[in-house]
Structure formats: C-alpha cells, structure tokens
Automatic annotation (TrEMBL), chains A, B:
GO function terms (MF aspect): DNA-binding transcription factor activity; transcription cis-regulatory region binding
Pfam families, per database record: LacI, Peripla_BP_3
PANTHER family referenced in this protein's UniProt entry, alphabetically: LACI-RELATED TRANSCRIPTIONAL REPRESSOR, LACTOSE OPERON REPRESSOR
DNA-binding in keyword set: yes
UniProt keyword annotations, A-Z: DNA-binding, Transcription, Transcription regulation
Domain HTH lacI-type: 10-66
Organism: Cellulomonas chitinilytica
Entry-linked InterPro entries: HTH_LacI (IPR000843), LacI/GalR-like_sensor (IPR046335), Lambda_DNA-bd_dom_sf (IPR010982), Peripla_BP_I (IPR028082)
Origin: domain of life: Bacteria
Protein name: LacI family transcriptional regulator
Amino acid sequence: MTAEQRPRRVTSADVAREAGVSRTTVSYVLNGTPHQKIPDATRQRIMHAVERLGYAPSATARALQSGRSDVVLCLLPDWPIGPAMGTLLETLSTSLAAEGLTLYAHPRAAGRPVSEVWRSLGPAAVVLWDELDDTEVAAMRAAGIAVTVALLSPTTQRQGELLVPQQRTGRVQAEHLAATGRRLIGYAYPEDPRLKGFAEPRLEGVRTACAELGLDAPVVRTLPMDAEAAADAVRAWVAEGVTGVCAYNDDVALAVLAGTRLAGVAVPGDLAVVGVDDIPAAPFASPPLTTVNAEQGVIAQYIAALVIRGLSGKPAPRRPGSDTIHLIRRESA
Amino acid sequence: MTAEQRPRRVTSADVAREAGVSRTTVSYVLNGTPHQKIPDATRQRIMHAVERLGYAPSATARALQSGRSDVVLCLLPDWPIGPAMGTLLETLSTSLAAEGLTLYAHPRAAGRPVSEVWRSLGPAAVVLWDELDDTEVAAMRAAGIAVTVALLSPTTQRQGELLVPQQRTGRVQAEHLAATGRRLIGYAYPEDPRLKGFAEPRLEGVRTACAELGLDAPVVRTLPMDAEAAADAVRAWVAEGVTGVCAYNDDVALAVLAGTRLAGVAVPGDLAVVGVDDIPAAPFASPPLTTVNAEQGVIAQYIAALVIRGLSGKPAPRRPGSDTIHLIRRESA
DNA sequence: CCACCTTACTGACACGCGCAAGTGAAACGC
DNA sequence: GCGTTTCACTTGCGCGTGTCAGTAAGGTGG
C-alpha cells in the first residue's frame, strides 16, 4: 500500500541490466533477428533473465514502433447474437490467427459513438455489419486503419465491402416451397426493428424468387414472439390461401410452428414452414424444422481473405460461390 | 501505387504545423487540459486544422504514454456461444463504457496460446471463464495487467475471481421439480465435452439440492443431440421411475422433449422437464418449456463493478444476491 | 606492422503522445 | 522605473520498442 503503488512494468531494459548486456542485444535475441551472431552463452544468459524477471514485451510499444498492429476489430451489430454469429467469429478468428492477426469483437455499448471504439484500439482492419458513412470511413483511413470490410451494405459496393448472401437465403427458401408445389407463400417478418437490415434483403430474395417462378408476391406479416399472436397470423395466412411460409430465421419459424399447433393447422400438409440458421433447437421442433443454412465457415474464410489481401495491398479475392447456402430438409416443408 | 505506398498517418505534429503552433498547444486544446489559457482564436485555428487534415489521435501512442489502456479483454470460452452470452457481453460492454472502459471479446482461435492474445492487446483487465494457472496470472501481472476476473473456477477463490452461480441454477431446477411432487429426478448431461466446466457445477447443484430435500441422487444420462437417442434415454429414465428431468440447458431440454414425443411419454404428466437459459425457442416448444434463467444484466454489472474496483485498487464489492436466478414457469414442469 | 574482415556487441534515433517546466512579452502594483 | 504576476505559449523529456549505423576486440593475410 505504501511502497509500491503500481508494481512497475518489467521492461526489456530490466532484462538487459540483469543479463549485463545492452537493450539492443536483448531485442535481437528475443526477436531472432537474422544476420546477427550472438553466442549461445549470452543468449542463455538473457533467456534466464527473462525467465527470472517474468518479462513480457509491451504490445503497445511494439505497435507504436512498428506502425502496424496485427489487430482486427469486429464491431458486432446491436441485434441479439445467436450461435450462427458465434461460429462465424470463431472461424474468422482462427483464419486470421493463421496469418498472425488477432481478432477482437466489440459488443456495441448503448449510446457510444463507434469512432470512440476503434480509436481506443487502433486496429489494422475493421469488420462490421452495418453500413457506414463516408466521413467515418475517411476518419478511419486517417487513423491508419487500412481495410474496412462492411457486410450487408445494400447501397454502394465500396472498396472491400461484401454483401453476405442474404438474398440467396430467401431465394433458396422460396424455391424449395415452390418445388414442393406451394403456389402462394407467406413471409414471417421479425418483430425486432433492429433486425430490419438483415430481414429486408432476405425478404427481397423471396420476392424476386417468387417473381421469377411466376408466383404471386409473398404475403408479408410481422410476427410477434408470442404463440397466440402467431396463431392469429397463421389463421390469416391460411384464410388467404397461403400454403407455405418463409420465416426470417429459425426462432421466428418456431413461433410460426407454435401458432400452427394452436390454430390446428397441419404442418406441412396445410402449411409448410422454412426457417434460416439451423439452430440447435431446429431438429427437435415438432415437426422437425426444415431450414436454410449458410456455411459460416466459408463466409468467415472469405472475410479473412478479404482482410489479409487488403492489408497486403492486393486486390480482393472473388466472392464465394453460391454453394455456401444449403437447404436442410426435415419435416416441416 | 508509386508515390505514396502507405498514406502516412496524420499526427498531431501535422496539425501543429498547419495551425502554426507547437504540438503541445494542440495537445492542450484537444484534451482540454485545465489551468491552461488558450484564446479562442488559436483554439479555432487548431480545430480547423484538425478538421482539414482529418486528424485522429493514435490510441497506441496514447496508451504507451499514459501507461494505462482503458481496454478490458474478455476471453470467450471455446464452447458454442448462445444468446445468453450475447446479452451478457452487451450489458458488460455498456457498464464498462460508463466508466470510460472499452470491452473487447476474443473468440478463441483453435490452437493458439492465450498468452499471445492478451499480449497483442495489452489490456488493463482480463475477464475469462476458464480457470487459469498461477504462472499465467504472474505473467499477466508482469505485463501490466492489473485485474483478472475469472469466472467459474471450481477450486480456489483467487483475487477477484467470481463463481457465476451455476450451482444455484441446478438447485432451482431441482427444487421446482421436488415442489411439484417429483421424487426421483434425472439429469440430462450435454454431449459436448467442452461444456463440462459449466455442466459439472450445475449438476452439483442438483445433487446437493436432492440430498438436502431427502431425495435419491439424480440419475445422470449424457444426451446425444439426436431425437432417437433422446427417446431411448427418456424410456430408460421412465423405466427407472424418474418423473422429472433437469436439463443442462434449453437445447438439451428440447432434445429431451423431442425424445418424449417419440417415446410416447406425456409431459409433464409422466415426465417433467426443466431447462436453463430461456432461449427464444423455449416458449414455442411443445409443451412450452419451463426453464431457469440467470439475469445476465445483474451478473454483467457485477463483473463490471469487480473490474472497476480492481482497477482503482479498491476491494471487491460483495456478490450479488441469490435473486439473480429465476424460474420461468411454463407447461413442461 | 598495417590493412582488412569477422564477431559481438552498443549508441542513438524514431514511433506519437502527454505533461512538467520554462520563457518571453505584456499587464499590473506601488 | 522596477519587481511581480498573468498570459500564451514552447522546449524537452519519457513511455518501451525495433533497428540502422557504428565500434572495439580479435583474427588473418601480406
């Protein structure tokens, strides 16, 4: 409490003093600098000192000196993150780690400007889900951030931006329903307004698929996360002649399923239901939920490639093929 | 491609030159250093220069100079992260942000030592879920990390470690089943070996609750994520006289529910089922799933308090009360 | 004996920033 | 007219690291 308020950091200078050499020599030994003849005797003396003092180099100073920071920041969206996002982050982290990059995710704090966040970290690249405005991008560039990968930007396709194939998921849902003979399909839109950015392109995919297949436009209905309300929606759909429903995701699909049970509607006989994500609960629904799944691994690796190429100044790789989206056929459709 | 390979960072020196003042004056203006009289004329000259050049201070240099980094690192566990973890991170991020701290989560990359991760960031504090060994803690201290909050460490209660009330969730599950007249209860253990650290204390809570209530020890059964296998487990439980099952979490509980459907066992009549987490799918199960929910918000705020107190050198606040765990009663138990 | 090379190091700078201490000029008190 | 205070700044140091450019000691060739 009195003597040592802060335990003072162990620096490479401490190691040098302990080993009786200069700081430079310590640096050479620890970094294995080539073309530098250091005899094993001193080498071991230094390693011992490192061990004894418990020295760990300062990431901060390293980053400052080298100018680059091997840190990739992922700004998480503010909508609830599920298992799909989890595995995506995991794969992304691993892919980047293979290249010596470290991924950090920031769960957005309520009422805090994004600029403050990336400023306090000084990353080499930023991955995010929302669209961001030009001034923000310019500010990042000025702060030394080389690459920004923005997913899900409906408007312009800027440098290094990627549209995660949301439309495709909608398309696959609709095509499956059409293939099983459904002529009029409904869309179960999520209640949470924060999900709009994701829901809109998926719905768009369903719309265009319907148009191409010569079907009527989908009947969109916002679905409250409540079984009774879902039952009302189901009844309304059936009354309108809807025979198949694409849900925004599996959670919404499960709500629809609960609604069919209350409304006494047979699935898939009277109404087929398709979800998105293949959450762990999907196979255990009654009936087991047919769903569309994007291979998070492939997407993550593509994002990683985008970041790595961007950092080395090379052009972006081409987008992954359409085989990243799979239909998982169970019994609900 | 030829002239400016790297766009060279805009520094405060550039701003100073542009505004015709010294770098220090720029620093004073930007940081609003007190007891420093700067006339509005120069102040605005500087702000204009900042604007024009698009200057953003380097987080790295700031951290190096100030010695502290206002960054809190959360090392995510390697088991699949669900919505519960998501909301916890979100609340934690917000709570820390109120104190000027920024939270970053690192999804663990396969086959990468943890030490490399916190080293590349140099955080002020680390929050993690596993237990960590003494040498690792010592290494962190040497690297200047002030606080480490480890959750879920079954053995020793080290400085600033916290046991998220896992046992309590198990206890609440068991007590509810006992209160509804179940005399012999089963425990549905998760298949994924990575979940052991979480599952064991929950099971322990069930065990002690059974013992205290004068019931037989719970019948533990590992539940594969497969409906047929789950049905086998359900049949076996029923044959043994088990009338209530505590599941590790809602996903497992939903598997049990699917098993009961296949096995023709009535829920909750023949077998009651209680989950943990209250995932979005829980209310839509058939029957709607009774589950136990930890208030992630309260836990997150406690962790945040722990970190903040730790950084300011004050002692840890006392643990949150037992009211963070709630039973959400639906129809499955 | 000196030129020359290798070995094993070290000195000093730069990275971008915050801040303690100083400095010249103007204003003020008596 | 001179000492003192206030104003509006600036000079300079240090944070911990990587690395270029030396440099003294020792060996080799002629």
